[in-house]
Amino acid sequence: MLSFWEQKNFLNYDLIVVGAGFTGLSAAINFKKKHKKAKVLVIDRGVFPSGASSKNAGFACFGSLTEILDDFWSMTPDEVLQLVEKRYTGLTQIRKQFGDQALRYQHRNGYEILGEEQLEALEQLPDINHLLKKIFKKEVFSVVKDPSKFGFSETVKAVVKNRFEGELDPGAYLNALWEKASGLGVRILSGVSVVEVNHEEGRVLAEKKGKKEIFEFVGERVAICTNAFTQKLWPASPLEPGRGLILLSKPIAGGIPWKGAFHLDRGYVYFREVEGRLLLGGARNKDFEKEKTTEFEVNPIIKDHLNRLAQEVIFPGRPLEWEMEWTGIMAFGTKKSPIIQQIGKKTAVAVRLGGMGVAIGWQVGKELSELLSDL
Questions:
Q1: Which residue ranges does the chain devote to CATH 3.50.50.60?
Q2: Backbone phi, psi, residue 228, to 5°
């Protein structure tokens, strides 16, 4: 039961954004910047963003050598180049917008470790560098002369360096977005689950977690930024969820002999040092079908695979204990490019970030805000 004051002040908006992750907050912030008097509301079902924004590994990356080579199987060279450029431009924009200190950004380079079966990728390294020079003006990838200095097992035959990648703290990034949104007067409601959106009328039905009371919000425009959780609000969405597991170790005795953002297996596996600990995640390609889910559970097959990589490849012969584990849900599709489109008279979506929310979430949200301004 609502009061007169609640009905008058809290239910009607110029823009309602569903989803409070990187993309949704970017859309709200950029729309509010352009329309200073607009009333903007952001709704999310979780206390924190429900997808992957505050659950990802914090890689400021745009694609490893083997990942880019793998993309050529489903994309043209121009499409691959556009995708890399979009990711790198997005990373550059958030660093400029919020500053490295606020993001806790560290430019410690990116690396990819290659086993015997991936060594043939090195033959195509010069061609990839030539292609990427259109964006970076310099060579992106180089082969590390002495890979043994990292302390990996002998199964690692080569290490490829990427001079343009770094790392950040996803929670710090989210804090920066919250502060920016708050300063502009954007309202954020957490713990409120949207159950239906009328795409033509801008009506948004939501309920508080654990309660049966339904609230009807009305927006002149509605933005759906729920990524992998979009099916309920847009049944025609061509999205496929992809769960990602992350393990975080206890502090490593004796320290870690390397720094940087590491990739392997076409980008499906990634690891980095965080406060003297090993953060290791990914490997959904080891059980694709079971990882096409929006359930936040740990797949024992994938956990076992990551654990063996840690014990046998990354830190062979060294003791290691896990302290934390969690999962995040990403969204994929037949193409790696994001979907930014109108789906009704008053509604538009920005989804399918392909596991690259850190890199492209801000830019995707900005493009969505421009689309919304024209509705």
A1: 4-54+172-239+335-373
A2: -65, -15
Q: Round to whole Å and give the CA distance between 331 and 241.
A: 5
How many Cβ atoms sit within 10 Å of the Cβ of residue 134?
Answer: 10
Nearest CA-CA partner of 244 in 262, 226, 272, 268: 268
Q: Positive or negative, the Cα torsion across 355, 359, 362, 368? A: negative
Q: For residues 268 and 244, what is the distance between their CA atoms, to the nearest angstrom? A: 9
Q: Quick one: which of 27, 371, 367, 308 has its CA closest to 177? A: 27
How many CB atoms sit inside 10 A of residue 154's CB?
8
Who's near 268: CB < 8 A, 6+ residues apart?
A: 282, 283, 284, 285
Quick one: which of 268, 212, 295, 143 has its CA closest to 1?
212
Cα(371)–Cα(341) distance, rounded to whole angstroms? 8
**CATH 3.30.9.10 residue ranges in the chain?**
64-168+240-332
Topology of domain 4-54+172-239+335-373, CATH: FAD/NAD(P)-binding domain (3.50.50)
Torsion angle of the four alpha carbons 9, 13, 18, 20, in this order, in degrees rounded to the nearest 10: -70
Each residue's pLDDT, cut to its tens digit, for the chain (375 residues) gives: 789 999 999 999 999 999 999 999 999 999 999 999 999 999 999 888 888 899 999 999 999 999 999 999 988 999 999 999 999 999 999 999 999 999 999 999 999 999 999 999 999 999 999 999 999 999 999 999 999 999 999 999 999 999 999 999 999 999 999 999 999 999 999 999 999 999 999 999 999 876 778 999 999 999 999 999 999 999 999 999 999 999 999 999 999 999 999 999 999 999 999 999 999 999 999 999 999 999 999 999 999 999 999 999 999 989 999 999 999 999 999 888 899 999 999 999 999 999 999 999 999 999 999 999 998
Q: Which run of H or E residues covers position 330?
A: strand 322-332
User: What gap in Å lies between CA 201 and CA 198, rounded to an integer?
Assistant: 6
CATH classification of 64-168+240-332 is 3.30.9.10, yes or no? yes
Query: What are the structure tokens assigned to 237, written together?
Result: 């969405």
